[in-house]
Amino acid sequence: DGFKAGEFDLWCSQKTLVYYSEQQIRRVRVVRRADGYYCQFLIDVERQEYQKPTGQITGIDLGLKEFYTDAQGNTVENLRYLRKLEKRLKKAQRRLSKRFCKEKKQSKNYHKQRVKVAKLHLKVSRQRKDKAIKDALALVQSNDLVVYEALKVRNLVKN
User: Fold this and answer.
1) 10: which strand partners?
2) Would you say 99 and 110 are in contact if contact means Cβ atoms under 8 Å apart?
3) For the chain, how long is the longest CA-to-CA vector?
4) How far, CA to CA in Å, does 120 sit from each of 19, 55, 144?
5) Which of 153, 155, 142, 134 is nearest to 65 (CA)?
6) Which tens digits make up the pLDDT trace of 60-75?
7) Do 146 and 62 meet the contact criterion of CB atoms below 8 Å apart?
8) What confidence tens digit (pLDDT) does each residue in 20-67 have?
9) Strand (E) positions, 71-150?
């Protein structure tokens, strides 16, 4: 990706990359998050999953109050992870604001607090992503065809 950072040592918790040859690895990307650096591998592998047809067809309606409602009337609630961490986030941002100083270089305590705030935001985003992936997988595995309406939620909120 034009990121010339040199060579890295690879430390893996699992031996997953041993199964792939160098020709199968298409791209390696280094990503920085609030809690550290991560290495993403794009691997060219053909994957097939076989499931018996269930004969189920459903339509889903994405919403603001509920995560989605399907054609049978089942709803999956929106857990509002940001609302649950709001008190901790508010306190952490207040501490960050107190450590900020315009006139001189930022202190080590400021940078430590900035990382804490970033980690709280990262936690919320990971919780949302995890919930969305699990719900989508359950929906796809239980139905043969899933139909949804492509609405722009931003426009609905304005109106």
Assistant:
1) none
2) yes
3) 67
4) 35, 42, 37
5) 153
6) 988 888 999 999 999 9
7) no
8) 777 888 888 888 899 988 888 898 988 888 888 888 999 998 888 899
9) 75-77, 145-148
**SS3 label, residue 45:** coil
Structure tokens at 101: 């100083």
Is pLDDT above 90 for 9? no
Place of tokens 């043969």: 144
Q: Which residue's structure tokens are 């650096």?
A: 37
Cα–Cα distance for residue pair 41/12, rounded to 1 Å:
12
Give the whole-angstrom CA distance, residue 60 versus residue 73.
9
User: How far is residue 116 from each of residues 43, 84, 88, 111, 152, measured CA to CA in Å?
Assistant: 33, 17, 10, 9, 33
Residue type, 61: D
The answer to whether the CB of 28 falls within 8 A of the CB of 7 is: no
